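User: Just a sanity check before I run the rest of the batch. Below are the structure tokens for the first item. I only need the designed sequence back.
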């Protein structure tokens, strides 16, 4: 038995129940990880509410963790007992003291990266890696727009994009968040709850508009994000923190021949080679200090309800983790 957080049916924070669950020995191709820290991500909210249904109920949620390999199943070659590892991977199941996971999803953690930083950076950091380097290749001298610039993904995006030589415009909901984003490489902050971000982007770019916008807010911002793009620009819709935009009409892309993509991390780290390349690129920028991982919120695993309440009410900044 291990302590874990399970959803018996989708719902609010109260749907998460901290309880004992059975844990079988690792199966063929699997490793058992004893978590030292667990990442909290917005996708966990989508799993909890049922926006992304679980395969079966009750089920443990959570997509990211770091810890020690305790045992391996038949045929595992990637890791061995005692290895320090981290992961961001389906299926959900990370909100637990220990779990089994396919060993091919685990990466060995460099000695200088602490477990808590790893648990707070794998999912968000590899997301930033593919967004800036593969969904669109951000080049020095380009200006880009990112929303929720002081969030978990946001602070990493600001730093990594600045490191690539881009000028970063970031939206946030408060002055305190604006200050934080600026301290992490955001050149122009916009308080989108008060200011018209489309007009501000026009001003900042002298009407030239942008080659790419990274939108993780969805319903509240997506159509306006499109207005910030220049001819043949790319709208990257990679999340929906404010809810899903229903009835999107592709004809709205037509006036400026825009492109749009709805990418997800797990399609960008689908092979072992892609996973290793993405993780190593992340480890490099972290080890060299180009990207600092800020874990601003740390909760005991049993206090997970509070963690979700704060994440959903826009109270958090930077990374968030659970500690078993
Ligand atoms: N597709 C992918 O591969 C992928 C991977 C990782 C994350 N994501 C997405 O990236 C986004 C950020 O994830 P995260 O874990 O780093 O979370 P986060 O940015 O730390 O938190 C979400 C932020 O969204 C903003 N927001 C705007 N409207 C909101 C609303 N109605 N309710 C709640 N928040 C709202 C808030 O910032 P302000 O207060 O500044 O507005 C809030 O702090 C999420 O949409 C997530 O789904 C996508």
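Assistant: Here's the designed sequence for the first item:
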């Amino acid at each position: 038995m291990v302590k874990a957080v399970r959803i018996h049916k989708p719902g609010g924070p109260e749907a998460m129940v901290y309880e004992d669950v059975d844990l079988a020995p690792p199966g063929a191709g699997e490793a058992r990880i004893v978590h030292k820290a667990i990442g909290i991500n917005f996708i966990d909210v989508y799993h909890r509410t049922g926006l992304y249904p679980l395969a079966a109920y009750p089920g443990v949620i959570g997509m990211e963790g770091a810890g020690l390999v305790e045992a391996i199943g038949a045929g595992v070659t990637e890791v061995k007992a005692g290895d320090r590892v981290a992961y961001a991977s389906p299926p959900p199941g990370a909100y637990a003291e220990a779990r089994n996971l396919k060993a091919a999803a685990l990466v060995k953690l460099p000695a200088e990266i602490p477990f808590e930083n790893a648990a707070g950076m794998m999912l968000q950091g590899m997301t930033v890696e593919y967004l800036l380097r593969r969904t669109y290749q951000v080049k020095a001298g380009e200006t880009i727009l990112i929303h929720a610039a002081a969030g978990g993904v946001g602070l990493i995006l600001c730093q990594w994009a600045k490191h690539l030589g881009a000028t970063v415009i970031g939206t946030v909901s408060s002055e305190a968040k604006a200050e934080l984003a600026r301290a992490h490489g955001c050149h122009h902050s916009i308080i989108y709850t008060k200011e018209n971000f489309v007009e501000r982007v026009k001003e900042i770019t002298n009407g030239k508009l942008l080659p790419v916008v990274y939108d993780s807010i969805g319903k509240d911002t997506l159509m306006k994000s499109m207005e910030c793009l220049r001819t043949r620009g790319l709208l990257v819709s990679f999340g929906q923190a404010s809810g899903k935009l229903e009835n999107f009409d592709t004809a709205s892309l037509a006036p400026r021949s825009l492109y749009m993509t709805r990418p997800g991390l797990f399609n960008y780290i689908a092979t072992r080679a892609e996973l290793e390349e993405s993780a190593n690129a992340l480890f490099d920028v972290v080890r060299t200090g180009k990207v600092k991982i800020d874990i601003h919120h740390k909760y005991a695993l049993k206090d997970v309800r509070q963690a979700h309440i704060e994440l959903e009410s826009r109270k958090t900044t930077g990374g968030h983790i659970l500690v078993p």
